[in-house]
Design a protein that fits this description.
TIM Barrel; M1 Pyruvate Kinase, Domain 3; Pyruvate Kinase, Chain: A, domain 1; 3 domains; elongated
Amino acid sequence: MTKFTPRARKVKILATVGPACSDPDVLRELFRAGADAFRFNMSHGEHHQHAENFRTVRALEAEFGRPIAILCDLQGPKLRVGTFKDGTAKIAHGASFTLDRDEKPGDDTRVCLPHPELFEALAVGQRLLINDGKIRLRVKDMTLDAVHCVAEVGGVISDRKGVNVPDAEVPIPALTEKDRKDLAFAMEQGADWIGLSFVQRPADIEEAKALMGGRGFLCAKIEKPQAVERLDEIITAADGVMVARGDLGVELLPQEVPPLQKRIVNATRLTGKPVIVATQMLESMIESPTPTRAEVSDVANAVYDGADAVMLSAETATGSWPEEAVMMMDSIARQVEADEAYKDRVRMLDTPPDHTTADALAHACMTIGDTIALKAICVFTSSGSTARRVARERPNVPVMVLTPSMQVARRVTLLWGAHPVATRDIGSFEEMIAKGKRMALRHGFGGAGTNIAMLAGVPFGRSGATNLLHVVKLTGDELDSYEEGDEVS
Protein backbone atom coordinates (compact mmCIF):
# COMPACT_ATOMS: atom_id res chain seq x y z
CA MET A 1 0.00 0.00 0.00
CA THR A 2 1.30 3.46 -0.95
CA LYS A 3 1.52 5.80 2.05
CA PHE A 4 -1.06 8.58 1.82
CA THR A 5 -0.40 11.92 3.47
CA PRO A 6 -3.60 13.70 4.60
CA ARG A 7 -4.57 16.72 2.53
CA ALA A 8 -3.40 20.01 4.02
CA ARG A 9 -6.81 21.58 3.37
CA LYS A 10 -10.39 21.11 4.46
CA VAL A 11 -12.46 21.93 1.34
CA LYS A 12 -12.72 18.93 -1.02
CA ILE A 13 -12.09 18.72 -4.76
CA LEU A 14 -14.49 16.80 -7.00
CA ALA A 15 -12.99 16.07 -10.44
CA THR A 16 -15.02 14.93 -13.45
CA VAL A 17 -13.78 11.85 -15.29
CA GLY A 18 -13.78 11.93 -19.09
CA PRO A 19 -11.66 11.13 -22.13
CA ALA A 20 -8.83 13.41 -20.96
CA CYS A 21 -8.28 11.54 -17.70
CA SER A 22 -9.80 8.05 -17.94
CA ASP A 23 -6.38 6.43 -18.29
CA PRO A 24 -5.49 4.82 -14.91
CA ASP A 25 -2.14 6.62 -14.76
CA VAL A 26 -3.80 10.00 -15.33
CA LEU A 27 -6.48 9.33 -12.69
CA ARG A 28 -3.74 8.38 -10.26
CA GLU A 29 -2.00 11.69 -10.93
CA LEU A 30 -5.28 13.58 -10.40
CA PHE A 31 -5.68 11.89 -7.04
CA ARG A 32 -2.08 12.69 -6.12
CA ALA A 33 -2.61 16.29 -7.25
CA GLY A 34 -5.54 16.71 -4.87
CA ALA A 35 -8.77 15.15 -6.19
CA ASP A 36 -10.74 13.72 -3.25
CA ALA A 37 -13.68 12.38 -5.25
CA PHE A 38 -14.58 11.69 -8.87
CA ARG A 39 -17.69 12.58 -10.84
CA PHE A 40 -18.93 10.34 -13.65
CA ASN A 41 -21.13 12.31 -16.06
CA MET A 42 -23.80 9.88 -17.24
CA SER A 43 -24.73 12.24 -20.10
CA HIS A 44 -21.63 10.97 -21.89
CA GLY A 45 -19.97 7.61 -22.35
CA GLU A 46 -21.21 4.03 -22.33
CA HIS A 47 -21.79 1.84 -19.30
CA HIS A 48 -18.78 -0.36 -20.05
CA GLN A 49 -16.55 2.75 -20.04
CA HIS A 50 -17.95 3.94 -16.72
CA ALA A 51 -17.55 0.42 -15.30
CA GLU A 52 -13.86 0.49 -16.20
CA ASN A 53 -13.50 3.87 -14.47
CA PHE A 54 -15.19 2.43 -11.38
CA ARG A 55 -12.59 -0.33 -11.29
CA THR A 56 -9.77 2.19 -11.71
CA VAL A 57 -10.96 4.38 -8.82
CA ARG A 58 -11.45 1.39 -6.53
CA ALA A 59 -7.92 0.23 -7.40
CA LEU A 60 -6.62 3.67 -6.42
CA GLU A 61 -8.51 3.36 -3.16
CA ALA A 62 -6.75 0.08 -2.39
CA GLU A 63 -3.37 1.44 -3.49
CA PHE A 64 -3.50 4.51 -1.24
CA GLY A 65 -5.66 3.15 1.57
CA ARG A 66 -7.94 6.16 1.34
CA PRO A 67 -11.73 5.99 0.70
CA ILE A 68 -12.61 7.82 -2.53
CA ALA A 69 -16.17 8.91 -3.32
CA ILE A 70 -17.73 8.37 -6.75
CA LEU A 71 -20.63 10.62 -7.77
CA CYS A 72 -22.69 9.51 -10.77
CA ASP A 73 -24.37 12.56 -12.27
CA LEU A 74 -27.62 11.72 -14.10
CA GLN A 75 -28.44 13.59 -17.29
CA GLY A 76 -32.01 14.47 -16.38
CA PRO A 77 -34.79 15.51 -18.78
CA LYS A 78 -33.24 17.44 -21.65
CA LEU A 79 -35.68 19.57 -23.63
CA ARG A 80 -34.58 20.08 -27.23
CA VAL A 81 -35.92 21.52 -30.48
CA GLY A 82 -36.19 19.33 -33.60
CA THR A 83 -34.11 19.51 -36.78
CA PHE A 84 -33.78 22.04 -39.63
CA LYS A 85 -33.80 21.61 -43.40
CA ASP A 86 -30.20 22.72 -43.73
CA GLY A 87 -29.07 21.76 -40.24
CA THR A 88 -29.22 25.40 -39.14
CA ALA A 89 -31.44 28.46 -39.43
CA LYS A 90 -31.14 32.14 -38.51
CA ILE A 91 -33.69 33.88 -36.34
CA ALA A 92 -33.61 37.66 -36.76
CA HIS A 93 -33.83 39.97 -33.74
CA GLY A 94 -37.46 40.95 -33.22
CA ALA A 95 -38.74 38.36 -35.73
CA SER A 96 -41.61 35.98 -35.15
CA PHE A 97 -40.70 32.35 -34.56
CA THR A 98 -43.00 29.38 -33.93
CA LEU A 99 -42.45 26.16 -32.02
CA ASP A 100 -44.98 23.56 -33.07
CA ARG A 101 -45.83 19.84 -33.12
CA ASP A 102 -45.09 19.43 -36.84
CA GLU A 103 -42.20 16.97 -37.20
CA LYS A 104 -41.10 18.34 -40.59
CA PRO A 105 -37.63 19.99 -40.60
CA GLY A 106 -37.70 23.64 -39.54
CA ASP A 107 -36.57 26.89 -41.18
CA ASP A 108 -36.10 30.55 -40.26
CA THR A 109 -39.72 30.84 -39.10
CA ARG A 110 -40.50 27.61 -37.23
CA VAL A 111 -39.24 24.32 -35.80
CA CYS A 112 -40.72 21.27 -34.12
CA LEU A 113 -40.81 21.18 -30.33
CA PRO A 114 -41.13 17.43 -29.58
CA HIS A 115 -42.31 17.85 -25.99
CA PRO A 116 -46.14 17.83 -25.75
CA GLU A 117 -46.02 18.64 -22.05
CA LEU A 118 -44.58 22.09 -22.79
CA PHE A 119 -47.66 23.14 -24.74
CA GLU A 120 -49.67 22.69 -21.56
CA ALA A 121 -47.15 24.32 -19.22
CA LEU A 122 -46.34 27.50 -21.14
CA ALA A 123 -48.28 30.76 -21.00
CA VAL A 124 -48.25 34.09 -22.83
CA GLY A 125 -45.39 36.31 -21.64
CA GLN A 126 -43.10 33.49 -20.58
CA ARG A 127 -39.57 32.98 -21.91
CA LEU A 128 -37.97 30.17 -23.89
CA LEU A 129 -34.16 30.08 -23.85
CA ILE A 130 -32.39 28.11 -26.57
CA ASN A 131 -28.76 27.00 -26.85
CA ASP A 132 -27.77 27.96 -23.27
CA GLY A 133 -29.69 31.22 -23.50
CA LYS A 134 -27.96 32.51 -26.62
CA ILE A 135 -31.41 32.79 -28.23
CA ARG A 136 -34.26 34.27 -26.15
CA LEU A 137 -37.87 33.94 -27.24
CA ARG A 138 -40.96 35.42 -25.57
CA VAL A 139 -44.38 33.72 -25.94
CA LYS A 140 -46.88 36.09 -27.56
CA ASP A 141 -49.67 33.68 -28.51
CA MET A 142 -50.52 30.00 -28.14
CA THR A 143 -52.72 27.31 -29.59
CA LEU A 144 -52.95 23.61 -28.77
CA ASP A 145 -50.40 22.85 -31.49
CA ALA A 146 -48.13 25.90 -31.66
CA VAL A 147 -46.31 28.40 -29.48
CA HIS A 148 -45.92 31.71 -31.33
CA CYS A 149 -42.98 33.74 -30.07
CA VAL A 150 -41.07 36.94 -30.73
CA ALA A 151 -37.26 36.76 -30.73
CA GLU A 152 -36.00 39.19 -28.10
CA VAL A 153 -32.52 37.92 -28.89
CA GLY A 154 -32.06 36.16 -32.21
CA GLY A 155 -29.17 34.23 -33.70
CA VAL A 156 -28.19 31.04 -35.44
CA ILE A 157 -30.03 27.93 -34.27
CA SER A 158 -29.13 24.36 -35.20
CA ASP A 159 -30.47 20.84 -34.83
CA ARG A 160 -31.58 19.61 -31.42
CA LYS A 161 -30.38 22.57 -29.39
CA GLY A 162 -31.44 22.59 -25.76
CA VAL A 163 -34.45 24.54 -24.51
CA ASN A 164 -34.76 26.07 -21.03
CA VAL A 165 -38.12 27.16 -19.63
CA PRO A 166 -37.32 29.33 -16.59
CA ASP A 167 -40.81 30.73 -15.96
CA ALA A 168 -42.82 27.51 -15.76
CA GLU A 169 -42.75 24.31 -13.73
CA VAL A 170 -42.64 21.72 -16.47
CA PRO A 171 -44.78 18.65 -15.62
CA ILE A 172 -42.10 16.09 -16.46
CA PRO A 173 -40.38 13.69 -14.07
CA ALA A 174 -36.78 14.36 -13.01
CA LEU A 175 -35.90 10.81 -14.09
CA THR A 176 -36.10 9.82 -17.76
CA GLU A 177 -35.95 6.22 -18.96
CA LYS A 178 -32.24 6.73 -19.62
CA ASP A 179 -31.78 8.07 -16.09
CA ARG A 180 -33.49 5.03 -14.62
CA LYS A 181 -31.14 2.72 -16.50
CA ASP A 182 -28.12 4.81 -15.53
CA LEU A 183 -29.25 4.87 -11.89
CA ALA A 184 -29.67 1.08 -11.82
CA PHE A 185 -26.20 0.71 -13.33
CA ALA A 186 -24.67 3.13 -10.82
CA MET A 187 -26.21 1.25 -7.90
CA GLU A 188 -24.93 -2.07 -9.26
CA GLN A 189 -21.43 -0.59 -9.49
CA GLY A 190 -21.59 0.77 -5.94
CA ALA A 191 -21.81 4.52 -6.58
CA ASP A 192 -21.52 6.53 -3.37
CA TRP A 193 -23.46 9.58 -4.53
CA ILE A 194 -26.07 10.20 -7.23
CA GLY A 195 -26.40 13.67 -8.72
CA LEU A 196 -30.04 14.36 -9.61
CA SER A 197 -30.36 16.94 -12.39
CA PHE A 198 -33.09 19.54 -12.93
CA VAL A 199 -34.78 19.01 -9.58
CA GLN A 200 -37.98 21.06 -9.36
CA ARG A 201 -39.72 19.64 -6.29
CA PRO A 202 -39.05 17.39 -3.25
CA ALA A 203 -41.05 14.60 -4.92
CA ASP A 204 -38.29 14.33 -7.55
CA ILE A 205 -35.83 13.43 -4.81
CA GLU A 206 -38.21 11.00 -3.14
CA GLU A 207 -38.70 9.17 -6.45
CA ALA A 208 -34.97 8.75 -7.00
CA LYS A 209 -34.33 7.69 -3.40
CA ALA A 210 -37.02 5.03 -3.66
CA LEU A 211 -35.20 3.55 -6.66
CA MET A 212 -31.87 3.74 -4.81
CA GLY A 213 -33.26 1.66 -1.96
CA GLY A 214 -30.94 3.07 0.68
CA ARG A 215 -27.82 2.49 -1.41
CA GLY A 216 -25.74 5.64 -1.71
CA PHE A 217 -26.54 9.29 -0.97
CA LEU A 218 -28.43 11.68 -3.23
CA CYS A 219 -27.14 15.13 -4.22
CA ALA A 220 -29.82 17.53 -5.47
CA LYS A 221 -28.55 19.79 -8.24
CA ILE A 222 -30.03 23.28 -7.93
CA GLU A 223 -30.31 24.58 -11.49
CA LYS A 224 -33.98 25.57 -11.86
CA PRO A 225 -35.78 28.63 -10.45
CA GLN A 226 -38.50 26.25 -9.26
CA ALA A 227 -35.94 24.48 -7.07
CA VAL A 228 -34.84 27.80 -5.58
CA GLU A 229 -38.45 28.55 -4.63
CA ARG A 230 -38.58 25.29 -2.62
CA LEU A 231 -34.96 25.28 -1.53
CA ASP A 232 -35.43 24.41 2.15
CA GLU A 233 -37.74 21.49 1.33
CA ILE A 234 -35.30 20.15 -1.24
CA ILE A 235 -32.32 20.43 1.13
CA THR A 236 -34.32 18.54 3.76
CA ALA A 237 -35.17 15.75 1.31
CA ALA A 238 -31.65 15.39 -0.15
CA ASP A 239 -28.38 14.16 1.40
CA GLY A 240 -26.38 16.96 -0.18
CA VAL A 241 -26.70 19.84 -2.64
CA MET A 242 -24.84 21.05 -5.70
CA VAL A 243 -24.94 24.66 -6.86
CA ALA A 244 -25.09 23.79 -10.57
CA ARG A 245 -24.31 27.21 -11.99
CA GLY A 246 -24.45 26.18 -15.66
CA ASP A 247 -28.19 25.89 -16.22
CA LEU A 248 -28.88 28.10 -13.21
CA GLY A 249 -26.98 30.86 -14.99
CA VAL A 250 -29.04 30.29 -18.13
CA GLU A 251 -32.44 30.43 -16.48
CA LEU A 252 -31.61 33.39 -14.23
CA LEU A 253 -29.92 36.69 -14.95
CA PRO A 254 -26.12 36.33 -14.54
CA GLN A 255 -26.01 38.89 -11.73
CA GLU A 256 -28.60 36.89 -9.77
CA VAL A 257 -26.38 33.80 -9.50
CA PRO A 258 -23.63 34.97 -7.05
CA PRO A 259 -25.98 35.98 -4.20
CA LEU A 260 -28.07 32.89 -4.86
CA GLN A 261 -24.95 30.74 -4.65
CA LYS A 262 -24.23 32.17 -1.20
CA ARG A 263 -27.81 31.60 -0.13
CA ILE A 264 -27.73 27.94 -1.21
CA VAL A 265 -24.36 27.35 0.45
CA ASN A 266 -25.53 28.90 3.72
CA ALA A 267 -28.89 27.11 3.75
CA THR A 268 -27.21 23.75 3.17
CA ARG A 269 -24.45 24.37 5.69
CA LEU A 270 -27.06 24.95 8.39
CA THR A 271 -28.15 21.32 7.99
CA GLY A 272 -24.61 19.92 8.07
CA LYS A 273 -25.11 18.32 4.67
CA PRO A 274 -22.33 18.76 2.08
CA VAL A 275 -22.71 21.53 -0.49
CA ILE A 276 -20.74 21.54 -3.75
CA VAL A 277 -20.09 24.62 -5.90
CA ALA A 278 -19.80 23.60 -9.54
CA THR A 279 -19.46 24.69 -13.18
CA GLN A 280 -16.91 26.88 -14.99
CA MET A 281 -14.72 27.34 -11.93
CA LEU A 282 -11.48 27.16 -13.93
CA GLU A 283 -13.08 27.12 -17.38
CA SER A 284 -10.14 28.68 -19.23
CA MET A 285 -7.94 25.77 -18.11
CA ILE A 286 -9.72 23.56 -20.61
CA GLU A 287 -7.24 25.03 -23.09
CA SER A 288 -4.78 27.06 -21.00
CA PRO A 289 -2.31 25.80 -18.37
CA THR A 290 -3.18 28.78 -16.15
CA PRO A 291 -6.55 30.25 -15.11
CA THR A 292 -7.75 33.83 -15.29
CA ARG A 293 -7.57 36.01 -12.18
CA ALA A 294 -11.36 36.12 -12.08
CA GLU A 295 -11.55 32.31 -12.01
CA VAL A 296 -9.07 32.17 -9.13
CA SER A 297 -11.23 34.66 -7.22
CA ASP A 298 -14.33 32.58 -7.98
CA VAL A 299 -12.81 29.44 -6.47
CA ALA A 300 -11.44 31.41 -3.52
CA ASN A 301 -14.85 32.93 -2.77
CA ALA A 302 -16.45 29.48 -2.65
CA VAL A 303 -13.77 28.35 -0.19
CA TYR A 304 -14.20 31.49 1.95
CA ASP A 305 -17.96 30.85 2.00
CA GLY A 306 -17.35 27.44 3.57
CA ALA A 307 -18.48 25.20 0.71
CA ASP A 308 -17.70 21.55 1.42
CA ALA A 309 -16.42 20.91 -2.10
CA VAL A 310 -15.55 22.65 -5.35
CA MET A 311 -15.93 20.86 -8.66
CA LEU A 312 -14.04 20.65 -11.94
CA SER A 313 -16.08 19.69 -15.01
CA ALA A 314 -14.66 19.90 -18.53
CA GLU A 315 -11.36 21.11 -17.07
CA THR A 316 -10.53 17.50 -16.15
CA ALA A 317 -12.98 15.58 -18.34
CA THR A 318 -11.97 16.90 -21.75
CA GLY A 319 -9.40 19.63 -21.11
CA SER A 320 -5.77 19.70 -22.15
CA TRP A 321 -4.49 20.30 -18.60
CA PRO A 322 -6.43 18.05 -16.19
CA GLU A 323 -3.65 17.54 -13.64
CA GLU A 324 -2.73 21.22 -13.68
CA ALA A 325 -6.39 22.16 -13.10
CA VAL A 326 -6.55 19.98 -9.97
CA MET A 327 -3.21 21.32 -8.74
CA MET A 328 -4.40 24.89 -9.27
CA MET A 329 -7.65 24.32 -7.40
CA ASP A 330 -5.73 22.64 -4.61
CA SER A 331 -3.26 25.53 -4.33
CA ILE A 332 -6.03 28.14 -4.31
CA ALA A 333 -7.81 26.32 -1.50
CA ARG A 334 -4.62 25.95 0.52
CA GLN A 335 -3.81 29.64 0.12
CA VAL A 336 -7.28 30.69 1.25
CA GLU A 337 -7.29 28.36 4.25
CA ALA A 338 -3.86 29.69 5.28
CA ASP A 339 -5.28 33.22 5.41
CA GLU A 340 -5.50 34.47 9.00
CA ALA A 341 -8.98 35.79 8.25
CA TYR A 342 -10.25 32.44 6.94
CA LYS A 343 -11.39 31.03 10.29
CA ASP A 344 -13.55 34.06 11.00
CA ARG A 345 -14.87 34.24 7.44
CA VAL A 346 -15.87 30.58 7.30
CA ARG A 347 -17.69 30.97 10.63
CA MET A 348 -19.54 34.15 9.73
CA LEU A 349 -22.56 31.90 9.26
CA ASP A 350 -24.04 31.11 12.66
CA THR A 351 -24.75 27.36 12.83
CA PRO A 352 -26.39 26.96 16.24
CA PRO A 353 -26.54 23.34 17.45
CA ASP A 354 -29.87 21.60 17.70
CA HIS A 355 -31.09 20.85 21.21
CA THR A 356 -29.58 17.37 21.30
CA THR A 357 -26.65 15.83 23.15
CA ALA A 358 -24.94 14.95 19.88
CA ASP A 359 -25.13 18.51 18.57
CA ALA A 360 -23.98 19.99 21.87
CA LEU A 361 -20.92 17.73 21.89
CA ALA A 362 -20.13 18.50 18.25
CA HIS A 363 -20.23 22.21 19.08
CA ALA A 364 -18.01 21.56 22.11
CA CYS A 365 -15.42 19.90 19.85
CA MET A 366 -15.14 23.14 17.92
CA THR A 367 -14.70 25.29 21.04
CA ILE A 368 -12.17 22.87 22.53
CA GLY A 369 -10.17 23.12 19.30
CA ASP A 370 -10.18 26.90 19.68
CA THR A 371 -9.08 26.72 23.30
CA ILE A 372 -6.34 24.10 23.40
CA ALA A 373 -3.86 22.78 20.83
CA LEU A 374 -5.79 19.90 19.29
CA LYS A 375 -4.32 18.08 16.30
CA ALA A 376 -7.57 16.39 15.25
CA ILE A 377 -11.11 15.50 16.25
CA CYS A 378 -11.64 11.74 16.09
CA VAL A 379 -15.28 10.84 15.39
CA PHE A 380 -16.57 7.28 15.75
CA THR A 381 -19.72 6.86 13.63
CA SER A 382 -21.72 4.09 12.02
CA SER A 383 -23.92 6.27 9.80
CA GLY A 384 -21.86 9.43 9.25
CA SER A 385 -24.35 11.71 11.02
CA THR A 386 -21.95 12.61 13.85
CA ALA A 387 -19.28 13.52 11.31
CA ARG A 388 -21.75 15.87 9.59
CA ARG A 389 -22.54 17.53 12.92
CA VAL A 390 -18.86 18.16 13.66
CA ALA A 391 -18.05 19.33 10.13
CA ARG A 392 -20.98 21.78 10.26
CA GLU A 393 -19.16 23.65 13.07
CA ARG A 394 -16.11 24.23 10.79
CA PRO A 395 -13.53 23.39 13.50
CA ASN A 396 -9.92 24.55 13.21
CA VAL A 397 -8.56 21.01 13.03
CA PRO A 398 -9.17 18.02 10.73
CA VAL A 399 -12.00 15.60 11.48
CA MET A 400 -10.84 11.98 11.40
CA VAL A 401 -13.96 9.88 10.78
CA LEU A 402 -13.65 6.27 11.98
CA THR A 403 -16.42 3.98 10.76
CA PRO A 404 -16.80 0.21 10.34
CA SER A 405 -18.51 0.78 6.96
CA MET A 406 -16.48 1.43 3.83
CA GLN A 407 -19.68 2.75 2.21
CA VAL A 408 -20.08 5.38 4.94
CA ALA A 409 -16.37 6.23 4.75
CA ARG A 410 -16.70 6.93 1.03
CA ARG A 411 -19.87 8.99 1.40
CA VAL A 412 -18.42 11.33 4.05
CA THR A 413 -15.39 12.03 1.83
CA LEU A 414 -17.22 15.10 0.48
CA LEU A 415 -17.62 16.59 3.97
CA TRP A 416 -15.55 19.67 4.81
CA GLY A 417 -12.44 18.72 6.79
CA ALA A 418 -13.27 15.00 6.94
CA HIS A 419 -10.56 12.33 6.70
CA PRO A 420 -12.50 9.03 6.63
CA VAL A 421 -10.99 5.73 7.74
CA ALA A 422 -12.82 2.41 7.46
CA THR A 423 -11.84 0.42 10.55
CA ARG A 424 -13.19 -2.41 12.65
CA ASP A 425 -15.82 -1.39 15.20
CA ILE A 426 -15.05 -0.77 18.85
CA GLY A 427 -16.71 -2.40 21.85
CA SER A 428 -15.42 -0.56 24.91
CA PHE A 429 -14.14 2.77 26.19
CA GLU A 430 -10.61 1.42 26.43
CA GLU A 431 -10.73 0.15 22.86
CA MET A 432 -12.00 3.55 21.68
CA ILE A 433 -9.06 5.34 23.30
CA ALA A 434 -6.51 2.86 21.96
CA LYS A 435 -7.90 2.85 18.44
CA GLY A 436 -8.34 6.61 18.25
CA LYS A 437 -4.72 7.17 19.29
CA ARG A 438 -3.47 4.46 16.94
CA MET A 439 -5.34 5.79 13.92
CA ALA A 440 -4.31 9.39 14.63
CA LEU A 441 -0.64 8.42 14.60
CA ARG A 442 -1.00 6.08 11.65
CA HIS A 443 -2.71 8.74 9.53
CA GLY A 444 -0.41 11.59 10.42
CA PHE A 445 -2.58 13.50 12.89
CA GLY A 446 -0.24 14.39 15.71
CA GLY A 447 2.72 12.86 17.48
CA ALA A 448 4.07 12.36 20.99
CA GLY A 449 2.71 14.99 23.36
CA THR A 450 -0.14 16.22 21.12
CA ASN A 451 -3.85 16.17 21.91
CA ILE A 452 -6.84 14.77 20.04
CA ALA A 453 -10.53 14.91 20.95
CA MET A 454 -12.66 11.78 20.61
CA LEU A 455 -16.40 11.76 20.03
CA ALA A 456 -18.44 8.56 20.24
CA GLY A 457 -21.62 6.99 21.57
CA VAL A 458 -22.25 4.57 24.43
CA PRO A 459 -23.35 1.82 24.08
CA PHE A 460 -20.84 1.40 21.25
CA GLY A 461 -22.00 0.22 17.85
CA ARG A 462 -25.49 1.74 18.12
CA SER A 463 -26.37 4.49 15.65
CA GLY A 464 -27.64 7.80 17.00
CA ALA A 465 -26.21 7.45 20.50
CA THR A 466 -23.44 10.09 20.45
CA ASN A 467 -22.95 11.05 24.11
CA LEU A 468 -19.22 10.84 24.88
CA LEU A 469 -16.45 13.43 24.40
CA HIS A 470 -12.93 12.74 25.63
CA VAL A 471 -9.59 14.52 25.11
CA VAL A 472 -6.40 12.41 25.15
CA LYS A 473 -2.67 13.01 24.79
CA LEU A 474 -0.62 10.85 22.43
CA THR A 475 2.59 9.26 23.67
CA GLY A 476 3.90 8.11 20.31
CA ASP A 477 4.00 4.44 21.34
CA GLU A 478 0.42 3.63 20.35
CA LEU A 479 1.39 2.18 16.96
CA ASP A 480 2.99 -0.74 18.78
CA SER A 481 -0.52 -2.11 19.24
CA TYR A 482 -1.44 -1.83 15.54
CA GLU A 483 -3.04 -5.02 14.29
CA GLU A 484 -3.08 -6.28 10.72
CA GLY A 485 -6.63 -5.87 9.46
CA ASP A 486 -7.32 -2.98 11.83
CA GLU A 487 -8.55 -1.09 8.75
CA VAL A 488 -11.12 -2.64 6.45
CA SER A 489 -11.66 -2.46 2.71
